[in-house]
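S.,

Sequence below, as promised.
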Amino acid sequence: MALDKETLFARHGHRQVPLDGAYNVRDLGGLPTVDGRITRRGLLYRADTLAFLSDADLQVLADLRLRAVVDFRSPQECARAPDRLPPIAGLTWWNPGFLPRGSLELFAHVNAGTYDADASFRAMLGQYRHLALEHLVDYRKLVTAILEMNHIPLLFHCASGKDRAGIATAIILLALGVPSQCIIEDYVISNYQRRPVDVFAAHAPSYAVEPVMAADPRYMEAAIGAMQDSYGSIDGYLAEGLGLDATALAGLRAIFTA
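The prediction came back faster than expected:
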């Protein structure tokens, strides 16, 4: 599976939503499923923070006719940098926000210089397992919103659009029957659309920062592996972890694939 920038953007460039003030925004439509269908365009979007959008960006989002924005940033993150939202009548903004367990400790170790590259990498593997298993309540809220048709089109995001939003994307695409290798390919696009973050000090060693900022395919593989190991299969994870039985999955696929 080729994951270099040129190949990824040749395959997925048509899904990008170019904005001045957000770097990692794309449509979840246009992806193949295991049963030969394609995810529908214009219904679900993933993004990084919307706090720094230009006026032109607001018009782009207004043209998407969004009905809901789901913000996975913590309340503290939202207070520091509130989203700028387009003036769409009836637009709903929800904040099921959280930080994965261990995030603050990870940032502190990197800033203190006590983590080398391998320690940061191993911590990130743990973060992705935590995201997949310990925040099911938060991700159920997103699934509930998606199932309510009056909230579609819907955009969800976190700070960089990579970690919390990355697992949300994986959950949705797994539910729609998109193969894991395609989900990982979509995830790695975030390597090339990075947003600077404010959690690292200027003196933090770059070799320890890089694994935290990277969209390493091994992170998503760890998350999907944790889903399978804990629930026996992806279907078990979707059913027991997220409450998506066969009827709910069929309904989602009827709406979001063609």
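The radius of gyration is 17 Å.

Coffee later?
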